[in-house]
């Protein structure tokens, strides 16, 4: 982690594309969630990047490591967008910025189908989004409330009286994944296998393991789609398999592209947020006390947890040559919007470092913005809200188990284990 946190401290001299001004070159590889810390607010090191002294566009000329390299990110480097209004433009201005190729891990094994709807630009994006939207509408999600609350309580029953749980492994990892698998109609027996494939795709850092996992999951999903073709049911996969877009059935590529991206985006994003949320409350018990005393704040607190723990920073590509903030941009240039910086931009959030459970409005980028705003956000919010409601009803003040390691990678799947304890009974 660079100290002190100033622009000068992160400037570098490094080969970069000729149109990139030298004074924008910085090494921001440390700000991509790859360096762990054990701060109460693990995102604190990124906050200053949205400060008024930071230029609107920086350029990280380091070739992407690990995951980025594997999925074909621009080997020349990427523009970094740290300020709120500019991040908002990248997400919202579809004439200039494209999602083509985003999260298309499948290319690693030679697959050519797109990730739907994430990697689709307008005008086609709208038809896929409209097709899936009813499944995430409030009227449908309302019907899931009892199931979600029931599952939380069933899981709390197991450990409430024990005074101890590994919130990351035994709870966070399981609860949202079970709901998601139920929504899609996936067989519960696939639970551990799914998580292992996902871990290998996102975190193994080994091309071989990623490819093996991709072959495994895509083989399974194609088999599952074939099964649903013969035996329809009431779940989302079956809806996709038998659905119609603009009056025609989906092609084989559209079916696998949609089911695959839901699998990738929906499987355990909520799990990562839960672990970070409980870590923050355990290390800062005044947040627990405030919410316990004021359950009416739980809705806005969920939003504040999301703002302060953004598990992803999103990428886009420039569609054409243009000038932005006096800097020439070339078609194909890669952009990385630094969501943790945007979410702490002092021009948009009063006391941005402070955790304010009553903060309103709270338009953060944890689910991005614009047309690709997370489709599962209403479900994720509901799962987090119901969890907090039931948790505070049943579990007294909790803390990290003495001696436990609170190190966190401030990103997706960031905490594997986090034992919490409380005074049971
Ligand atoms: C706290 C939990 C979650 C977080 C932080 C999250 C985050 C995100 C982000 C940042 C994007 C946009 C990526 C980009 O544009 O580059 C996204 C898109 C998406 N997410 Fe989520 N997600 C969460 C939960 C879910 C769940 C539970 C589902 C499904 C059940 C889901 C399904 C999707 C889909 C389908 C998209 C693509 C939307 C589009 O392109 O129109 N997400 N999510």
Bound molecule kinds, no repeats: protoporphyrin IX containing FE
Number of domains: 1
Mean pLDDT: 93
The CATH architecture category equals Orthogonal Bundle
Low-confidence stretches: none
Task: Determine the strand fraction and express it as a percent band.
Answer: 5-15%
Global outline: globular
Distance between the termini: 42 Å
Number of helices: 18
Supply the helix-strand structural class: alpha+beta
Give the topology string: H per helix, E per strand: HHEHEHEHHHEHHHHHEEHHHHEEEEHHEE
CATH class: Mainly Alpha
Biggest sheet descriptor: 5 strands, mixed
Proportion of helical residues: 40-55%
Q: Over all CA atoms, what is the radius of gyration?
A: 22 Å
Structural overview:
The protein has helices at residues 7-10, 44-47, 66-70, 84-92, 124-132, 138-142, 145-159, 167-172, 175-184, 191-203, 207-230, 236-242, 252-266, 269-283, 285-293, 298-308, 339-342, 377-394; strands at 58-60, 78-81, 97-98, 164-166, 244-245, 248-249, 315-318, 322-324, 327-329, 334-337, 398-400, 419-422. With 425 residues, it is α+β, with helices and mostly antiparallel strands. It has a single domain (7-422), classed as Cytochrome p450. The strands form 4 sheets. It has a 5-stranded mixed β-sheet, with helices on one face. The protein has a 3-stranded antiparallel β-sheet with strand order 4-12-11. Strands 5-6 form a two-stranded antiparallel sheet. Strand 8 and strand 9 form a beta hairpin. Helix 11 packs across helix 13 (252-266), helix 14 (269-283) crosses helix 15 (285-293) and helix 16 packs across helix 18 (377-394). The protein is globular and about 65 Å long. The chain starts with 6 loop residues before the first helix and ends with a strand. The site of protoporphyrin IX containing FE has 24 residues, from helix 13, helix 14 and helix 18.
